[in-house]
Structures
1.
Amino acid sequence: MLEVSGITQIFGGVTALDSVSFAISAGDITGVIGPNGAGKTTLFNIITGIYRQTAGTVHLEGKNVTGLPPEKLARLAMVRTFQNIELFGGMTVLENVMVGMHTKSSAGLLACAFKMPWSISEERRIREGAMKWLEFTGIVDLADHVAGSLPFGKGRLLEIARALAVEPRIILMDEPAAGLNSQETVGLAQLIKQIRDTGITVVLVEHDMELVMDICDRIIVLNLGTKLAEGTPREIQESSAVIAAYLGDDD
Amino acid sequence: MEKLIRSGSNTMKRDLLLFIGFSVLIMVAPQLFAGGYLMNVLVFVGINTMLAIALNLLLGYAGQISLGHAGFFGLGAYISGILTTTFSLNPWLAMPIAALAVGCLAGVIGFPILKLKGHYLAMASLGLGIIMYIVFNETVELTGGPSGLSGIPNMKLAGVSFDSDVKNYYLIWGFTLAVMLFSINLANSRVGRALRAVHDSEVAAQVLGVNARLLKVQIFALSAIISSLAGSLYAHTMTFISPASFGFNFSIELLTMVVIGGLGSIYGSFLGAALLTLLPEILRGANDYDIIIYGGLLVLMVMYMPGGLVRGIPDLFKKIFKPKGGADHA
Amino acid sequence: MQFDQILQYTLSGLSTGAIYALIGIGFSIIYNATGIINFAQGEFVMLGGLLTLSCLELLALPLWAAVPCAIAVSTVVGILFERLAIRPLKQPTPINLVIITIGGSILIRGLAMLVWGKDTHAIPAFSGDVPISVGGATILPQHLWILAITLVTICINKIYFYHTISGKAMRACSYNRRAAGLVGIDVRRMVLFSFIISSAMGAVAGIIVAPLTMTAYDVGVMLGLKGFCAAIIGGMSSGLSTVIGGLLLGVLESLGAGLISSGYKDAIAFIILLLILFIRPQGLFGKADSERV
């Protein structure tokens, strides 16, 4: 599904990632864990086209997508969420998700402005599709609220609904449980499993070990910019290298 | 869920009714204000509304500032003016040619200029506007230089020449209403949502598949085209143009209109344009001091009413009437 | 013959360039401390010149007293500007800041028009108008004053930034405002300081250039923009790069006006501005930070 090889990132002389390689198979929930500063978010930013790496390649479903901008990756069915939810705060919840349908619709600037018949029916389709995803994440009753006024937990669900509206085959989530209370985290775990059950491959960076061990099929451990270990949750829990890396960390 | 989808089409109906009501008001206005002088001012309200909407699409929706829009306005006016005088072209032909040329220019400049953000974009667009202003002044053989270009023909349609204030009023407002409807439709569409998304979080919009850079350039070009149309109409109603109308100060005046009316609101642009066009007329005699009023208004609006008049006035009413009104009437 | 001309243009370009450099450094100091491009920067230049005029004519002060007076009053305006327009802003987004500094600049300009009228005013040169000849070209004593005062101002600036506690704190703010705040630097005070220094430097520039070019309520617009251009060439540095940027701009403008066309003189600065922003937004001498796409 997703294959990264030899990813290296150097920020002004500091090596943030050093030749990281791994492959993620379709249909899995894969967790990327590691102490603070291990390079997890940087790795996500590279895979999703927000940073350009110093070296290394990214393949998506066998296709070389190295250096493609995020909007192209969305069209190749890869989408991500952010650690500090990046909502469109001035728009309603429904409109947020409707933006997610951008790649699944095509009316151009002039068609929209002149209200061509096909753009009107497309608009209706977008609205219905967006509602479907709000229902999936269970926030349909908030559809008319302004996104900027949502509590954090609901905002997180909205961000996921919006990402799903892209109809991705792979979704990358950057610390989805950060800022959630324990009850919300349980709900999130359920939702992530549901997402996987619809056939979408899930990759997440996460600090909440309980969540990771609970839902992940495979785990990749990063430490100081290199891949430390990779395996099933059980293998990782028993790996002495991982334990050593975490003991030095207060997290 | 059904209810919400229907509520979507209800909003559309409400928007349409509002627009029709507004249009009717505009169309009967000449009957109410028969005085010739006021008609002339209302013609300018129309042109300025068009320009404010153009800038608002860029600033209020896409979140990209431009301090050089007077330049595009002037370019439209000059291309129309020169084509119809020196080359004796029909104004109806000159206008789209000007719009196309300005649109192309904006499209080409848009790519490098919209890579810049915030303050840098403001300065670059300002520089662009000033360069255009200097060109209007210095290409004397073409533009007549500082002393201006005169003898620009009025528009004609089916034998009627638009040569009086009332006729021009209908001509200009016909175009302005069309631009308004166009912009309202755009704002509530897939493209409009993508624009607002880019405004709120560019990176999130990109991740969802919005080609932010291309979209920004498109809207920049569209905004320039509308400005150019306004310029052509201005040239053909005034029949005389000079660089002084297209300088840095006018770019700032446009910015003031948009901010005062309300960023991201089409009717707000009308309010801002109307207020700033009528204000100097109301304050006649204090003519030189309007610059101070603009400055003061800008500062006060940003500090105390950042949503503009469109949102600020209803809020104000709520604040004033809520404590009492709540007890008495509710 | 040809060489004399070029020398002449270069020499007069250098003194205008020094003015641009001073204004540009003013821009950079505020930008580095706050991330704001202060569109009102040019108005302090205007105030410097016109206030000196008032001190000389209305108060009949001698020049040596009029100049500090004018600088002091301009600085007070700078402080008021920061206190009344920048600090109370509830949503300091870049667009709001652009609009409010533009609004402020219009307001200051408008008030200046009320006080001094629309006329252009002349200020006597600091030490006479007898031209000095330099290798075939001639310069005015005022040119030398400009270069000398610019040099002194920049040196004072340097000493402040590198050898005083508050100057060092200000530099810390420019590297990382949050970190500076965490180590106990009063960032808001540093913002105020940056406005004080910038307005004072702007006023100095306005005072020393006024005898050469005359002054009026609206000179700040163009001078401010040219100063910004100098700062952009210098990569928004508050040091040598911006000085070189200003001098470069001054000389290019002067050569362009003399050898090509004087009508397009002002366009030169803006074309340079656009080119630099498009091609090397980090400035002519800066290093590219290329990691972020």
2.
Amino acid sequence: MNLDFSNDEKEFRKSIRQWMKENVPDDIRRCTARGAMPDKNMQQRWERLLGSQGWLTSTWPEQFGGPGWSATQRYIFDQERASAGAPPTSPFGVAMVGPVLYTFGSEAQKERWLPGIQRGETLWCQGYSEPNAGSDLASLKTRATRNGDHYLVNGQKIWTTQAHWADMMFCLVRTDSTVKQQQGISFLLIDMKTPGLEVRPIYSIDGHHHLNEVYFTDVKVPVENLVGQEGMGWTIAKFLLTHERTTIAGVADIHYEINRLKSAIDALPTETDKQLAVRRLAGLEVDLMALEYTNFRTVAATDEGKPFGPESSGLKIKGTELQQRVSQAMVEIGGLMSLPWDNEEPIGEQIFNQASRRYNFLRACTIYGGSNEIQKNVLAKMLLGL
Amino acid sequence: MDFKLPENTTMIADTARRYLKDNYSFDSYIAQLNESNHLEANRWQAMNDLGWFGLPFAESVGGYGGSLLDVCAIVQELGAALCLDPFVDLIVSPGKLLEFANTPTSLALLDRIIAGEARVACGLYDRHAGYHVLNPSLRLNGERLSGQKHVVSDGGVADAVLVSAMSGDELVIVALPFDACDVERYRLLDGSRAASLTLDDVLITDEMVLCRGDAAKQAVSAWFDYLCALDCARMYGACREVYQATLEYARTRKQFGRTIGSFQVIQHYLVDAFIDLQQLESMLLMVSVKGESANVCERGRATAAAKAYYANRAVGITQQGIQIHGGVGVTEELNIGHYFRLVTHASLSHGDREHHMSRFIQAGEKQNEVV
């Protein structure tokens, strides 16, 4: 038993902290401190900056261009990243299609796509959900029909985050409707500029445009953009569910949010308001501690070479619940100060000004990436044998 | 970081589990529940033979130098077995207070506890001070001690007690015989035995005062944190059993022609319990290390967080265990309700949730001052 970081790890933290201090751009830092979301330009500048250090793809094995960090180092990096006010990186390229490509892709596919992800140059989006295939993903209907050296894709995807930013989409399509649902699904890479592909915005309740509908009408996708074989799509999708993501709980960003909220308590109108806010924050901090030590255990186990098991779904469930509770606390503690929606100048403490937007935005986090109810179904089956 | 238990701790835990499996059952528990004397001679001797009496204490004071982690391993198994043998009340609790007090008289008494020769309890709580153990209402005026102590957990058999009192504005720890007090004995929520003591001008000689002033404060505060960690260990053991039993029940109990574990709502309750249990284990590992940290602020913050968390989630697991068992869950004949009482008890002894939330907030403020 040892609950301390090693001296090497402490040195690593120091060097990352120093780098963050010198390199996180001021406009991005201010944006995060306001509780706002970075725009495309900020997100991409930040990811390219990390890419230039070789840190964007920190979870990748060294042979594919990862920096060779341990899970503990990656965890420390994430803590320092969040506390410096830098945004998390977009998961679609780095955490999703990248690992799919170096695990299932051909040599040509690796050469073609991995460098762009590593350098933060290619932006990806995820074409999974459809209007009638949400939690029941395997019932998806978007068709890809083989036609000589290409597929013709027809159908519709929905809830496609950042499709309006993306250069490429990785997409689950049906290539065979004569076999069992799961076996007829394939994994295709689709250029977002292909004719016949149309992106339409969906505005979410935070008032912003993150989500989209994507329509496919006879979209030509070259056969070399199929990953693995036809029919392997479901296997690949499942691989991603248990792919190691030791920062999935969002502990570092929850810390940052709690600290932001703490810094505003002095601005509350009365002593009673302050005391109640302090008490509420302490409750959240205690729950965060339990989540964080559970996360530490996963990190330590990963560094011992143990597989990242389904029990890590617990990190996602508890992490997203806590993100929502913290954002709700911020709105409720802000009270009247949380009500203005589109004003430039805050009517009170700055942090409450965007709090309700963030609160609205985070209602999605227990839904995306497999709703928490679906995660629980999976756990009940895989871990509890029910 | 490394969360693997040291080999020695694993051995201690295995031995405790095996010993209790062979020597203590739900029937033994029910039998003990109906006794007012909880010191069962054979098992008491067996625990002594296992080395448990010396384990919690440093080698320099005659113990075997076990860590808090080791003691938590035993207490976890005692909780899992619903065992009422007063190992904590008569060995660990008074022994640690005497060890922390670290005076010649306190260590002499500790010697007798380790040897299994003394039956001493701790009386650090009273009606007026509640959980605020550094401000007891008992008063030592000159040589006379007056006031009241309650929830003196003693297995029903202690003949001496360590009490805290204020002597002017100084905290003192005093050892005195039970028969110097008016004693009222009763059973507690978890089935264990305790007493209330009324002291009316009891004559206190110098050698009965073990420790005073800052030294007494430090000893009581270290004792409180240590006992908080043990509460968590005990609750964890109980929750582990409740979770396993409830999962097993959901797999086998049939209604509407199918097992109730096939219903999604029950599956989700059980997944919630699984995740909570994982987090409770994380908090237990954390507090088993930090609960005896030399950094007093870190120690206090860790024990406060752990107990506050347990008072919420450990209690929640046992409540849900009853709910999933349905009617049979609220009966005396099933163990589930007894675990619920044990966990509720442990969540209220040595500070309840609100008390520990306040401590956590204060520790955070102090931490900021240091930074």
3.
Amino acid sequence: MKKIIAFGILILFSSLLMAQTPSAEEILNKIDENMVFDQAISKSKMIIHGRIGDRTIESKSWSKGNDLAMVEYLSPPREAGTKMLKTADKLWIYTPEPTDRIITISGHLLRQSVMGSDLSYEDITDNSSMIESYNAEILGTETIRDRECWVLELTAKKDDISYYSRKIWVDTERLLPLKEERFAKSGKLLKKTEILEVFKQDGRWYPRHMIFKDMLSRGKGTEYFIESIDFNVDIPEYKFTKAALRR
Amino acid sequence: MLAIKLAYRNLIGAGLRTWLNVFILSFSFLVIIWHRGITNGWDRQARNDTINQEIGGGQYWHENYDPYDPFTLADAHGIIHEKLQEKADYAPVLITQATIYPGGRVQSVLLKGIEPDQKVLTIPTEYLKSDMDEIPVMLGSRMAENNKLKIGDIVTVRWRDANGTFDAADAKVVYIFKTSVPMIDNGQMWVSLQRLQKMMQMDGEATLVVANQEITSAQDLQHWLFQDHSILLKDLDEYRKMGNIEGVIMWFILLLLAWIAIFDTQVLSIFRRQKEIGTDIALGMTRGQVIRIFTIEGAMHGILAAILAAIYGGPLLYLQAVKGMSMPEGTDDMGITITDTIYPYYGIGLVVVTALVVLTTTTIVSFLPTRRISKMNPTDAIRGKIQ
């Protein structure tokens, strides 16, 4: 009789626990609510830990949806004034005086590393929705830096997604992926991302300090800091035109 | 005949002065033939190697393919045309961009897929026949050296498939081949065509199709454009033209030295032999006959130089044609087809043309100073009065 009661309590407790855990799709939706924005202007700093030393690059970005992005490098002085415009699958890079040149490049360069970092142009300008791109399955829970996380396995819904599968550790309270592993179709681990610090702005949690690591290369990773971000902006369309590169 | 005899006697009589001029001229003669021989030899070898190992009789390119723009590669592929399926005549090649990580370093490469049992190109593609778990890859020696890879090494390759999705796998170096053609070596990794088609999700597709050496011209096919040797060997032709211009400048400098020596000798000879010239004219020779003797004398430098060059230069040139000329380290990194050893090629036409050029120009240079003779007063000449 005691065994039956204990079993009943266990079932009841598990049901309550399950009721508290949202579905994988709900989790992805919540992540999108935090991470995906209509428009934003941000200032960021990138520290590239290379084999021969560290390099720091500061930049200001204007983003609209997933297709439009403009990035202007502010420092170091050698890179200051360089601008990058992304529209859909095209990329233009403007280098200021003395070259004063705009280079047009097809979508291939979006996959190349930005100034030797562990991030591609695609990673930097990515603002895509997870729920639209991936099917998800909850694998369980784990603790990352004292934060309770749901572990999710994501598999691409469509053929044209860069990373076929991902594994993410989502903070159960703040709903941000504190750790992420991105895999090739073969299952090989390609990239690892960790969010080390977060902040809350306009009712959403957003990463402050992240570290990216290309797992195939010998580099020591790239740190990425969001110094400020403003989601309540209305960026005019001209900001995403080639003419704006020279302004 | 008298003029030739006189000219020969005078020339030999001049002794060391004549032999110095002849030696300088023979040296120029030899260097010109040697230089042309080296250029011809390099050109023949480069063409043969490029045809045998890279371009065959010609290539069909997919209509979007531009070898000078790697960004076109994403769209430059299509189902191989039904008329290009015969294995004995055609070797399809699929090309895509990828990244390798030798020793953790990031390196962009071109992955080239080719049938392991193709018979069109002479590269050892049979080594790509393997069922191992890793992707069997073959490299040129420059690529292997630049990336510190050797046979048996495993390197991670990352690529994007036809849909743009990342994929990665380990590749094993199964063979490293030595080639003089950088276009099939630098920054390239060769894999089996079927394996690459599967990796890229491009079944039955290729970027270009190499035709065998008997097919040197053909009609364009739907989506496939035929490129003949005039297009595929354009870089080599341009390089050769550039080499020819440099060669002409070098010959001119060398011949100029010889011409100056002969011209100077002629001027001195006419000045010193005024009495002889006056006597010849006084004895009834026309000014034209005297000019002819002096011109033949000068021109004979060229004939003697050709004989001398044949005596000491012939064996030297022959020896080099047999042994070849080793190229210095690093020459093969210049981006143009150059073998480790260049074997000069001296055609009979080269020797005859060079001899004619040297003899004609030497005769002209010999004639120019003799025009003074026509203005000489024979009486003053016999007296030795400076004119």
